[in-house]
User: Fold this.
Amino acid sequence: MNKTIIFLLIQIISFLSCSVNDDNVITSFDDPIKILNLGDSYTIGQSVCDTCRFPEQLKSALNDSINKTININVIAQTGWTTTNLINTLEDQSLQTDYDLATLLIGVNNQYQNIDFLVFEAEFPQLLQMAINAIGGDKSNLIVLSIPDYAFTTFGQNNGNPETTSEEINMYNDFIESYCQQEDITFLNITDITRQGLEHPNLVAIDGLHPSELAYTKFVERLLPITLQKIE
Assistant:
């Protein structure tokens, strides 16, 4: 085989293994990063635009930080309790090849006055479902704390705000303690939402859910942890 043929083969292999974007940055054809986002209205992004919710903002931030394709699957709905999320996941054939998963659940258990024993039983079940989806590697799971809606116009005018915060604390204390026990990453974002009365721009137009800005602040904390886990 002469040198010309060898050179051509090298060029073909190089072309097939990478492409060049408009900025002349070489992009490899690696498998995309797959992220699963599980939760309720705080994950689906009630009352903000589709790209404003934290899973989409995290995806955008990752795209700016690493040279890989990011695919997300958001399984969440406004009003979902732990029971709703479990039933939905049981009805689906969830893939087990996700690279990362986030879980944010529990506020509707509290809001609907469901016995706390239900959460104590179902939260570990949801953790295991999320871990199964990431191939059994619990180090690639991030659990977010429950926001405190007492610090919104809705929360101030519905129920007792002090009781709401106390109950949110109870849920979050359990979540954090269980995550520490199981060596699972726990991320506190509740303090951000407790600035909602002092800084109304952290609350969405509905007077209840986090705004785009609040989700941006979530992602500022999420991004470095996520990068550490996927790189």
Remarks:
- Residues 3-10, 12-29 have pLDDT under 50 and may be disordered.
- Residues 76 and 136 are 21 Å apart (CA to CA).
- The first helix runs from residue 3 to 17.
- Strands lie at 18-20, 26-28, 33-39, 70-76, 100-104, 141-144, 185-187.
